[in-house]
Amino acid sequence: MLKNRLIFFTDQTRKYILLGILFQELSLIARIVSVFQIGDLLNAVIRGRPYDRLLYRVLAVIAVCLILQAVSARFQTQMEARSVTDIGRTIREKIYDKIMTLGASYREKVPLTEIIYLSTEGVPQIEAFYEKFIPKLIYSATAPVTLFLFMAVAINVRSSLVFLLCTPLLTVIGFMIMRAFKNMRSAYHDDYSTLRAHFMENLRGLPTLKLYRADDIKADEMIREAEEFSTSAMRFYTLQMVEEGAAELFALMGCLMGILVGTSEYVYGTFSLTGCIILILLSVEFFIPSIRLCEMLRSADTAYDISKRLTDFLEIKEPQFGSRELNVPHIYSETEEVVLANMDRYERPRFLKKSGISYTLSDVHFSYAQGREILHGVNMVLPPESFVSLVGPSGSGKSTVAEILCGKLKNYKGEIKVGCDGRSMNLYDIREPELLSHVVLVKTSSHIFRGTIEENLRMAKKNADDQELLDALDAVHLLPFIRSHDGLKTQIEAGGANLSAGEAQRLAIARALLKDAEVLIFDETTSNIDADSEACIMSVIKELSRRKTVLLISHRLSNVTDCDCIYVMDNGLIRESGTHEELLARRGIYNKLYRTQKSLEDYSTGDMKYEGKEQQILHLKGAHKAAGNAQSSRKSEGPGTGPDGSGEKKNTDKHRNVLVLLAELTGLVSPAFYLTLLAAFLGMAATLCLLFIPVITGSAVMNELSQLRHEELLSSPVARYFQFAVLLVILRIIFSAGEKYLSHFAAHRILSQIRHEVYTSLRRLAPARFEKQDKAELVQVLTDDIEHLETFYAETTGRTLAALLAALAIGFYLWAIHMYAGILMLAGYMICSVLIPMVRTHLTTDASASFRHETGELGSFLLDQLNGIDDLQQYGNGEDGKQQLTARCTLFDEAHEQYEGTGALWNILEKSGSFLFSFGMFFLTLFLHIRGQVSVSEVVTCTIIEFYSFKFIPTLFGLSGNTGKMLAGGDLILDILEERPVVQDVSEAEGKLGWDGYKRFHGAEMSRVTFAYDNETILQDFTILLWPKQLIGIHGPEGCGKSTILKLLLRFWDVDNGSITICGEDIKNIATRRLRDAESYMAQDTVIFHDSIANNIAIGKPGASRVEIIRAAKKAALHDFILSLPKGYDTQIDELGNRLSDGERKRIGIARAFLHNAPLVLLDEPTGQLDSLNEGMILKALVEECREKTIVIASTRDSAMRACDTVFKM
């Protein structure tokens, strides 16, 4: 099953794993020796021999064994943690080193998504494999041998041999059953991932769904999906129970077989009575390691698959790199050298290095792994110090050419010559680090790393001084931005998440400029950014082309008009080449593309003349510039807080008491209360059956065997005891399967109900609840928290009740034997299984939180580094990146070791407590026997029950390993369920009778409105009038309240003062359903669902016909794009990958709004972060549609206002 070199990555890992197993063996030996001491003492009592001196010896030996048990428990935990520490860091470093060794063309060998999966989700699986499974695998082999040696020497060989032979068979059976169900298990996990993804998606898109009244449809879909998943899940759980039941049946029957052999040996005089008792006490020790191993086989199989994928990745053959150097000279004329030498350093040109590098491509072909040829024979020349552009439709191969020139794609055919200083060499022959030091590629997706602006820039030039950094930022017009923040120390989030698209792109260009490479390739650098940023970037690129070899790839043909040469690509071939004027004169592909784009861009630039229209500009008063973004100012709102800070606020800073929280979560089982209760009783019955199997065999030994010397065992009354024990085994399997089935069935019913109630609650709270800053976090946390609750309801609620009932039943049973025995048993369970776990959970909160924090930090760091691996390579920061990885792993390891160290102490207390109470029961009942209050048989019975109770009745901590996460998640979910909406929906009965503004719209007005977000005034005494059948613009800077105006018109919140009317009626008096029919809305971020394009558009009007959908798509200028797709309107969003641009997403949102067919259309930044071409297409669609509707655009962009009839300035 396992490849040898994957079992132990390092000597350290091997050492810690073996040391951990050694301490487990020492703990086992301590238990064996202690049980033997009980046997000796019991033998003396039964035979009536003096045992005073023996008693002292037994107590001394057991005390030593207790100390050995505690020490072993502590060091075992430490060894397991340290083995993971070493292996996790080693795997991540090996993955990182392999990427760097594969070089810039690593993506030809393995997709980046696979590397990210192995480094993030894969490593924890492998860590668990080494920390838990490998030690259990070895221990399941060594423990039976250790037991066999002790028992064979001290008790009996035959019975010990039976145990020894049965234990490996148990592992083999478990493995075979697990492999047989592997495909079904994979299908189950796929179904669960789909259900989870749909739930998360529906939460994220809930505001959009509610505004278009499609939320009820999605709610019905989720109920249907949950029911379908529940059916398939229960089939999976049934097979899983067969797997677990078969393993447990084999283990229990093996125990009985070994005990039966031992008793038969006793009958025939080769075995002692105390030997039989010791055999019963130790028999389960043979099988527990194998049972624990079988429980981990499924996760181990997953880890093995990941290990195989990791091995395949690490064994990828590394490409053959060239060895030649370019030796690029830094040539300047004598006059230039003199001038530069005498200039002040701050007056010199920012980027001095001249380019002496050229490229010549001859008949270049390229195919990806799938075999489809992308380039069909490309011929082109990039002279030194030139400005060359490559244009053409999407998918024509432009980006492929760029990546070949940078060395990122090597499997091309044909010839590429790199010229330098009069020399020429093949691209293949150049040493890769040498090539990357002279070429830089800036893409639309160039990665911005988490850290400061300074750290991002110094990637390109480590020894750059601050002035050089500022010069690079000044070149891309970013100095005003950093001066308004924290300068070079301004913190940037991963991927530039807290920057606009233009700012992130300009920072990437500044980093490229700082490298000062001879060849710069810009691949769609200005795509999907605003017009001002685009103009800034293009001016920098044109300045660079005076001294550099510049290749510009762009869809925007207006950016390439000044190029020295333009190459036009189509379907993998160069179709045309020449200057802008030459290509226009030919009236070919370029001429057609340019004229088409120019007509669309005129809507954005303002060159289009609108017949019969004269723009009216009005200035509004009453808008206040918020201290920060208006959305972020609501960060402090708690659930149910009104924007005016009214009394609907619920204080969520105060968390529920743990007991109260558990009680409320348990109260949610009402949809499956009787199922949960029945599962608890079945679980109790299963536990009692398991406990009484050794009790029955012990009774047989004590009550009957002493009378059966030299008689046939199977024909004696003892046979009835074993027959009853077999019956208990069968009942145990049946009850256990029933408990698990009912628990999971109940959990699915409860979780389905919770998902439905959470979604229903959020439907009430939407859209206002989703306007908080924590929207994305809320969706993610809720989804994860519901998963944590599945463990609570499936494995904790019923089983906790079952464990408590079983403990009480056993306690009362022992109480019937003697009161003190019952009290000791209940006290032992409450202390070791309830009190210690609860205190542990409470006192390890900080260590657990620190560990979770470092886990999240490490995951974020890995994603950041791997998503930006291309930039790390091209800027030569591979070694720095590895050092950061090692440092981050070290912090994680320290937190993990601290967490495990804290857990080790409590592990000692739990094991020592169970040890003390187990042997305490023996000495207590022995003392009671000496006083004549209990019989020897009852001493044996009480001792067996106490020993087995700690093995078979689980602790509360063992039932719920993620207690902290579960409690936190339950607290948030209960808050959501109890939260009250900021604005109550108005029913048809409560609304204004006869209002038909959605049919005959004649205007809307906000009159003297005052509105504040959490005591920060945004609008004060504000008035605006919206006339029918006009394209109206609301223009102003960020944070001035533009989005707030649209949301108030939609009644996200109620105003503090003033009124909002539509068609003369206050919106507070309009039925919510009718209000939604009268308004369409598109937010800044268009939510796209994982469905077909047609169904995504149909969100605007559930049940719309295909004709209506197509009509809406045409109005949004989206129809031609959809028809270009292989499946047209039936194309699934998942099939497009990254091909769906921001412009296309926004046009889907506009198509929804048009399909909704409301008379008032509200659009928030409909052209935000779009290039002029996409902006022009959208504005053209809006100009044509406003003949029938009132369209309101809120935007910061001047270009978006040029098409409006009326513009309100804020």
The proportion of residues in beta strands is 5-15%
Round the mean pLDDT to the nearest integer and report it: 79
Largest sheet: 6 strands, mixed
Number of helices: 40
* Range of helix content: 55-70%
The computed structural class is alpha/beta
The low-confidence parts are 1-5, 331-352, 626-653
The CATH homologous superfamily of the domain at 620-626 and 986-1209 is called P-loop containing nucleotide triphosphate hydrolases
Gyration radius from CA atoms, angstroms: 37 Å
Morphology call:
globular
CATH fold name of the domain at 620-626 and 986-1209, please?
Answer: Rossmann fold
User: What's the CATH first level of the domain at 620-626 and 986-1209?
Assistant: Alpha Beta
Give the beta-strand count: 22
CATH 2nd-level architecture of the domain at 620-626 and 986-1209? 3-Layer(aba) Sandwich
Strand order of the largest sheet: 6-9-10-3-11-12
Distance between the termini: 69 Å
